[in-house]
Amino acid sequence: MMKKYEMIYRDLVRKITHQLYPANTYLPSENELTELYGASRETVRKALANLLENGFIHKIKGKGSIVLTFDRYAFPISGLTSYHELDELFDMKTETRVLKLSTTTVPQTKFNLDTTEVIPATYIQRLRIVDGEPLVIDNDYVVQAVVPTITETVAANSLYDYFENQQHLEIGYASKEVTVAPATEEQQAILHITPGSSVVIVKSETHLQDNTLLQFTESVHRSDKFKFVEHARRKLI
Amino acid sequence: MMKKYEMIYRDLVRKITHQLYPANTYLPSENELTELYGASRETVRKALANLLENGFIHKIKGKGSIVLTFDRYAFPISGLTSYHELDELFDMKTETRVLKLSTTTVPQTKFNLDTTEVIPATYIQRLRIVDGEPLVIDNDYVVQAVVPTITETVAANSLYDYFENQQHLEIGYASKEVTVAPATEEQQAILHITPGSSVVIVKSETHLQDNTLLQFTESVHRSDKFKFVEHARRKLI
DNA sequence: CAGTGGTCTAGACCACTAG
DNA sequence: TAGTGGTCTAGACCACTGT
Question: In degrees to the nearest 10, what's the CA dihedral of A108, A112, A117, A121?
Fold first, then answer.
């Protein structure tokens, strides 16, 4: 049984993206939505809070919830979203090429670990090609204590799909860190960029719902093709 | 009168940052917090939802809310936070130098506006110097229809403080876009970086609570000093 | 089993916006 | 004044975790 507020959220997202509720118009009021979906007001408000957080709407006290214009072509650094899911949502022609697949340990220096920690892991290097252009190198270290083996077929498809649907692991959260650095020679060669170019590096550390460490990832993006957008609300620290 | 869930949130943040609730330990249960603060469970949960969103805790069903390690030294792209507020929270030695202050219109091409739109604005260029090093150039265009005049004194201090406390405007949200580009000669000179260096460009469009446009900002960061971290939770698009 | 967080409800009062 | 979203409550049932 699907959660009610999730149902309402999805239905509203669909109606917004299909412009049944166009940008710069107001959604039905919370009381109306309460009747429409046969839910209590707090449940409707939970769905709206989700829309708010994801930048679909802005709420104005005394007036209503206004639909915002939605930028479709941004890379979601925020959020944990797989390329496979992106593929289905937008129609980017994405191709994934597995460059390396081996068994090692997580490199401590790269991910700021204690030098004492030795974590056996499966190392996967993949190249993401979008519309014929090599855009991103993903270096994944998947903790073997959680996922013992990963085949090349799985790597070529979606790790997340494998984790969630085959292994029945539940992804919880990740801490991400974004920096910019000069491209190494290997990166220049793989990404087809000139010496002296910069790359954007996104390092992340993914945990399961029960807080166990699952995966370390270093994503290396071509900086000239890198872009991400964010919806920020005013909040106190 | 302060909102109850905001009180609870702030108190918990304080206790976490002061390590009264250390990392990797559990917070008191929701029922205990309900008694501790004399609030209903849903109110406590609203405070916890805030902690969750800001990466302070992770919740595990059947077990409790676990405190996460908090990275203090990240630049908050996410969120709308002024340098002044950062200054007070961390103790960075921040200095702001006003380079330009004039009256113009918002440049359409830079912010992807319709060429027909002509928006009179106050232009402010400021240099942010942290620990003696020039790190960021902020180019702000403040819509004159909302804020008619801005003095050099105000610009040298905090625009947000001026907007919120003097002008009594309420900041609502901003859409932000992050890209990387080669530094222009002017940027090289101001930021003391070598030719061929990259800069990180954060463009944003800030709105008030009532949805009126307040401000366009282009922030140019030295890429070698740029870093931001994010806490991402698994969610469906 | 008792305790935890996750979902949902029905109802209340408030502050704000509009005509 | 009527309608909107914002806050808060008290209580219910569920699924999950540990013992």
Answer: -50
The residue among B173, B194, B197 with the most chain A CBs within 10 A of its CB, best to mutate, is B173
Q: What is the pLDDT of residue B85?
A: 59
Contact between chains at A60 and B176 (C-beta distance less than 8 A): no
Strand D lies under 7 A from the Cβ of residue B46? yes
Instruction: Answer yes or no: pTM beyond 0.70.
Output: yes
Please indicate whether residue A16 or residue B81 has the higher confidence score (pLDDT): A16
Domains along chain B? 4-67 (1.10.10.10), 83-225 (3.40.1410.10)
Kindly report which amino acid residue has its CA closest to the C1' atom of nucleotide D17: B62
Distance in Å from D3's C1' to B5's CA comes to: 26
**What are the distances in angstroms from CA A117 to CA A144, A212, A232, B69, B203?**
14, 15, 36, 18, 40
Tokens coding B150: 């801005």
Which amino acid is it at B141?
Y
Give B209 CA → C16 C1' in Å.
12
* B47-67 as b/e: b if 16+ CB within 10 A: bbbbbbebbbbbbeeeebbbb
